[in-house]
Specification:
Elements lengths: L1 E2 L1 H13 L6 E4 L6 H11 L3 E6 L5 H5 L1 E5 L2 E5 L9 E7 L6 H13 L1 E2 L2 E2 L3 E8 L13 H4 L3 E5 L3 H10 L4 H9 L17 H12 L5 H4 L1 H14 L5 H6 L10 H14 L3 H14 L2 H18 L2 H10 L1 H20 L1
Parallel strand pairs: 1-10, 2-9, 2-10, 3-6, 6-9
Antiparallel strand pairs: 4-5, 7-8
């Protein structure tokens, strides 16, 4: 079963909270955020995080240096392996390492030890990699090693990327563009090393903020589309007037400007009154599908920030907003009943 990044996050978080120290292998296309999910879980749970790339090591680097001692050989472990506390030992891109290196890692994963080194009790051992069909330069994982893991397959999810983007200060113009062109969230290009993925979109956001062209991150064709989208977005209504309830502007008729407006508005909202005024303006000026896009982006952000209840109270107090949400809830229930 394919998991979204958010579902993967929830599954891995359950392993943490229940202290279930089963080894995990995360499979997914390059650049979709596998490593970011693991790093975020470590941060959220105040766990140390050690990221090891086996492709950069030789077997002796992981096993340690042999040192004679009173007629016996002992292995001095490398300094990058954890020796205390609690954390996640993450073997990223594990199947890009040659079979000999994977064989050495197998003892670490199976026995939680290698040479004279033992993994501390409070540490989880997780790994990640790409599949051969993703056109990654990988080696087949040995069956004994594969059988030691729980295996999670991760799919690409625009909603999950938007949730991540909204919380991590990724430029709202990129979020709006991907709402407009969702197929460009992840589109590998065999003829160009620069192509759009969640990872490269995050790099593109950094380039936008310092005034550089994004083609070096996402490729020429995608960058040209993004530039055209941004150029059009300059014509969108005044966001501050919308949030203050004083806007006299109409809702844009150009789809690209509409997407840019919705995304920028959701990110800019900071207090409940901003959300209610924006919602009421959309009710007067926009078609239902645009209102739904706004609700989706706003609720993604509020849920992720833990602010949903605070904003929901403000919506319920406003008669216009309350009636729309009640009607929407009834319609959703009727559709679900039919399905």
């Amino acid at each position: 079963m394919l998991l979204s990044p958010n579902e993967l996050h929830n599954s891995l978080s359950t392993l943490i909270t229940t202290d279930t120290q089963l080894s995990v292998m995360i499979w997914g296309k390059p650049g979709i955020g596998k490593s970011s999910v693991v790093a975020n879980i470590a941060k959220q749970n105040n766990l140390a995080f050690v990221d090891i790339r086996l492709t950069q090591l030789m077997p002796s680097d992981l096993r340690g240096i042999p040192v004679p001692d009173q007629g016996k050989t002992h292995w001095f472990p490398p300094s990058f392996l954890p020796t205390k506390g609690k954390g996640i030992l993450f073997l990223d891109e594990i199947n890009m390492a040659p079979p000999t290196m994977q064989g050495v890692a197998q003892q670490l994963i199976l026995d939680r030890k290698i040479g004279d080194y033992n993994v501390p009790d409070g540490w989880f051992i997780w790994a990640a990699g790409n599949r051969a069909e993703d056109k990654a330069a990988v080696f087949k994982m040995p069956a004994p090693l594969a059988n030691r893991f729980l295996h999670f397959d991760v799919a690409i999810s625009l909603d999950d990327f938007k949730r991540y983007a909204l919380l991590n200060n990724i430029d709202s113009k990129i979020i709006g563009f991907l709402n407009f062109r969702p197929a460009l969230l992840h589109k590998p290009n065999d003829n160009d090393p620069r192509w759009p993925s969640p990872r490269s979109w995050e790099m593109a956001s950094q380039l936008l903020k310092i005034g550089l062209n994004t083609s070096s991150a996402i490729g020429n064709g995608c960058a040209i589309e993004l530039e055209a989208f941004i150029e059009l977005s300059y014509n969108m209504p005044d966001l501050n007037a919308i949030m203050q309830g004083t806007s006299i502007d109409d809702f844009p008729t150009t789809p690209s400007i509409s997407y840019a407006l919705i995304s920028a508005l959701a990110i800019k909202i900071k207090v409940p009154s901003d959300a209610v005024n924006s919602f009421k303006w959309l009710l007067k000026t926009a078609n239902p599908e645009w209102i739904q896009v706004f609700i989706n982006d706003l609720f993604l952000l509020l849920n992720a920030n833990g602010q949903f209840a605070q904003f929901a109270t403000a919506f319920i107090k406003d008669p216009t907003a309350k009636k729309y949400l009640q009607d929407y809830a009834k319609l959703t229930k009727a559709i679900n009943d039919v399905l």
